[in-house]
Predict the structure.
Amino acid sequence: MKITIATAFAAVLLATITACGSNAPPANLSPSGTPAVSQSPTTLPDVQGKRAVDARSELRSLGFDASFFDANGNEWLKDYPDTDVLVVGTEPAAHEAKPDGVVRIITNVSEAEQKAAASAKAEKAAQATLALRYTYTCGGAGTSEPQKIFKSYKEVWASLYYHRRNGCSLYLDGTSVYDTTKLLPREQKIVDIVAINGGDASIPGFAYASVFDLCAIDNPDYADELPAKPQWKKAEALAALAMCPDAPHAAALEEAAHAVQISDGNKIVGKDMEAGTYRTKPGVKNCYWSRNTGSGSIISNDFVGFAPDGAIATVYAGEGFESSGCGIWTKIS
């Protein structure tokens, strides 16, 4: 019985001494008693073939400072690589010693190439949207031609309606241009060109449709038409050149947008018309013109019975210019 008590007392005493006197830390603590921190690798890991965004995250998690560069050494400055951009290498290369500075992640495309690809993708999507948006109907009831529906002005160029104006009407998403309340950004830009250049953009949908018509149909007399408000015509022609610079009749649009023209009548040079040299259309017949002083005296005049190349007159600021039967005069210098 005495041995058992002594043995038990010794066991308790030994356990107490062990618990109080040991300096060994738990397995998950450092010698100082703080949680142990894993050390970053001393060589660069291999991230080639990985997505650029994943490679950067991996390198940073291991303590490396990393940035994106293309194969020509240009750093990505504005955009962030898309998820399909891959790593083709690093500088320093994989398994080399940890660098003091920034690790260069070399991408398989450049920032500019990614931007161009994104723009092309957006343009393709926009074209797909536009392919369903426009309904340009020509002919039909009240005309001598069968009805034909086009989805773009370029489709009209290859049709019989390109040189004819048979009551063509534009609808946007099936809605009349008079009732369209919202234009697409690219459509609004065309209307803005009309407005900026002094045209009528009070009904945006109608203004856009007018420019669409100019792009779709070739009117051989368009450049020589002189409406009551010539500036409206110029504004629409400028907008059409922005919309369809590749139109087969672009030259006529260019002339309408930039030509200085006057019609028959009495004009004060410097007020109603610019000074300079003007020519009528070729083949003009029975055309009379005269230059007059402020008091009405004739400075020079001519009656043109027939001019295959067109009649020509030069006028100066401050004098009057009168013409009859000459049609449209276009400034040539």
